[in-house]
Amino acid sequence: xxxxxxxxxxxxxxxxxxKENSFFSLFPKFLLGCGFDNLGDYENEEEETRDIINFKxxxxxxxxxxxxxxxxxxxxxxxxxxxxxDSNKDNLIKGIDSMS
Length: 100
Prior knowledge:
By secondary structure, this protein is α+β, with helices and mostly antiparallel strands. It has one domain. The chain contains 2 helices and 5 strands. It has a 5-stranded antiparallel sheet, with no helix packed on it. A hairpin with a 3-residue loop joins β4 (68-73) and β5. The mean pLDDT is 88.
């Protein structure tokens, strides 16, 4: 997936990606790397057969002890907003790099 924007301020990090179907295979790995053990709909391998184009104006939320994540599907972008401590920044960047 192509990362097209990023930024951070006060423990809030955001990343903007182009919408690509590869998201469905990459995002679960990102969540696992951030310590999530319940991936919800992303645990299902059949998700890869879904068309990302159908995900519009949708918001999903994930939270564990270290990360509070909002996942936003717009018309043509995927936006991740992640709230975490600065001490988790290296792990977060590693996970984002694995998706882009």
